[in-house]
Specification:
WH-like_DNA-bd_sf, Arc Repressor Mutant, subunit A, mainly alpha, HTH luxR-type domain-containing protein, 75% helix, 25 helices, Sig_transdc_resp-reg_C-effctor, DNA-binding
Length: 490
């Protein structure tokens, strides 16, 4: 009878290969084998232990993450014997373990040490570890700085594998900081390097970042293209993070297109117990779910997730958390308390970076003020929103706010590229245009609903958005606008 033995080094190589281009669960199991072989080289066990943590994180399994972190501690301690310098990997593991087991007070100092120990060096692996620690701390600016340094170090030696890994952190950090154009550029560079080096899991993550950037900046068709590509790989490999980001991007696009019920349904499914959302990213998605649910008339769904959103805000996982929580409370409130909550959200936004989310809060507040027949106040908020949207390149969102401004009585302005305001129906989504044409032809809302097989409430919602987008105030004006759009050129 023969027995088969495995080589710890072979298991480590196989596990790292699977982590780059294969199912995360398989990578985790293989790396755990390499980590736990008693006679393995201490440095190889160390590499396997850290990679096993990374694989568990990629799969979005909190229990597996905690187990991998606990198992890594003694391995790191053995490999650090005789070291004269602090071990940032040990601080990272201790901090992450404290964070996941509900001890944020201990997590912050340990993660902070990991960042400060590594950020000035030139070791690519330690710089990436520091970027990950900074993201866990919610310090996105430090993550951007350290990620950029890791990228520069990788480029200096022509290491495309490290370029792909560094851009994975850098693009995501820039996205979290609200710098969508920079996130897009880094993601494009990183994705090319990931494809060339066979890192399809990294490519999926970068596709998801590209989808989110496109949801803000356009073109809208890119959202579906990038999100579809990310989801195809991520679901095949069991990667929770790209799934979460790609579905979030699709929901944002649906919300911008005037389909809040679809966005809310998508995110509710994602956040369900078996929905596939990454446990550490749920808080980022919740504000979009609240906004979509309220716009779709389902306040109860918004109220249901506020406790989780409040806990995420308290965790300091994202510097914009307090402002986003206040915005969601404002959307769900009734009466004048709404105005106060929006004002407090504006103040909280001024304490952190992130032009797009700040613009969303100004936009939503301005729309609320206009509905309350306070056009002067509404115009002030909406103009600030336009300025911020333009600054972060969110042209599709800026165009919608300009229409809201016209509905609030502001004089028509010029688009960022110059030229007169549009008089066509180009600013409408296909669904909105179908409803606009039905109404222009004389159909009632109930007749439109029957014709398009949707609810009357859905027609009411879309028609309000059509009025805002076109700057019209009555069905008669809408019919005139449709006729002008269809008229042949002189």
């Amino acid at each position: 009878m023969t027995t088969t033995t495995t080589s710890p080094r072979a298991d480590l190589t196989r596990g790292l290969t699977l982590l780059a281009d294969g199912p995360a669960g398989d990578a985790h199991a293989t790396l755990c084998l390499a980590r736990d072989v008693p006679e393995a080289d201490p440095q190889e066990s160390r590499a396997a232990a850290l990679a096993a943590v990374q694989a568990a994180w990629a799969a979005g399994e909190p229990d597996a993450c905690v187990a991998a972190l606990a198992a890594a501690r003694p391995v790191l301690a053995r490999s650090a014997v005789g070291r004269r310098r602090p071990d940032p990997a040990g601080d990272y593991v201790d901090g992450m373990l404290a964070l996941l087991t509900g001890d944020p007070g201990s997590a912050a100092p340990a993660l902070g040490r990991a960042v400060s120990t590594c950020r000035g060096g030139d070791d690519g692996d330690l710089l990436l570890l520091a970027a990950a620690a900074a993201l866990l701390l919610g310090d996105v600016e430090a993550a951007c700085e350290v990620g950029a340094r890791a990228l520069a170090a990788a480029r200096s030696v022509g290491d495309e594998t490290r370029v792909a890994r560094a851009t994975e952190y850098t693009a995501y950090a820039e996205l979290r900081a609200g710098r969508h154009a920079l996130a897009r550029e880094h993601a494009l560079v990183g994705r090319r390097a990931a494809v060339r080096t066979g890192r399809s899991s990294t490519a999926a993550h970068l596709d998801a970042v590209l989808a989110l950037a496109a949801a803000v900046q356009g073109p809208r068709a890119d959202v579906g293209r990038y999100a579809g590509r990310a989801l195809s790989t991520a679901r095949r490999h069991g990667l929770a993070q790209p799934v979460t980001l790609a579905e979030w991007a699709s929901a944002r696009a649906e919300l911008a297109d005037g389909r809040p019920a679809e966005a809310a349904a998508r995110l509710s499914s994602l956040l369900a117990p078996a929905g596939g959302a990454h446990f550490a990213l749920r808080g980022l998605v919740l504000p979009t779910l609240v906004e979509a649910a309220v716009a779709a008339g389902d306040d109860a769904a918004g109220h249901d997730v506020v406790p989780e959103l409040a806990a995420w805000s308290r965790s300091a996982a994202d510097p914009q958390g307090p402002a986003l929580l206040l915005r969601c409370r404002a959307l769900l409130a009734r009466g004048e308390v709404t105005d106060d909550l929006f004002e407090r959200a504006h103040a909280a936004h001024r304490e952190c970076a992130g032009d797009f989310e700040r613009a969303r809060t100004l936009d939503l507040h301005g729309a609320w003020l206009r509905r309350r027949r306070r056009p002067v106040d509404a115009r002030a908020r909406l103009r600030d929103a336009v300025q911020l949207y333009d600054r972060c390149g969110a042209e599709p969102w800026s165009r919608a706010v300009r229409a809201e401004l016209r509905a609030a009585g502001a004089a028509p302005d010029r688009a960022p590229g110059g030229g007169a305001p549009p008089t066509s129906l180009a600013g409408l989504t296909p669904h909105q245009e179908r409803i606009a044409r039905c109404v222009a032809a004389g159909d009632t809302n109930r007749e439109v609903a029957a014709r398009l097989s949707v609810s009357v409430r859905t027609v009411d919602f879309h028609l309000r958005n059509v009025f805002v987008a076109l700057g019209v105030r009555s069905r008669v004006e809408l019919a005139r606008r449709v006729a002008e759009a269809d008229a042949p050129p002189p």
